[in-house]
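User: For my dataset I need records formatted as: sequence, then structure tokens, nothing else. Please produce one.
Assistant:
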Amino acid sequence: MIKLITLYPTPSDADHFRSYFVNKHLPLCRLIPGLNNAHYSLSPQVVEGLDRWFCLFEAEFIDRASLNAALSTPQAHAAASDIVNYSPKTPTSLIYTPQPV
């Protein structure tokens, strides 16, 4: 399994972000081929330090090849292009393979 996590900074218009993200952006994400599972939170809490993040989105794929294939699809490009419609601040994305503890 491999995951893509995107962290969104606090927007100036939180209500617009919430509404657009849930009602318009997430439906685009659901169309991405190979997406096994996805989760989001509009209220992540920072354990220590400043409250820097407003939203967290996590997408799960079978493996790196599946993720790479998914990211090259028109559906993924549409979802990525849509980010500017609700988040004028650039999000941070990370790709990682979870390891057992």
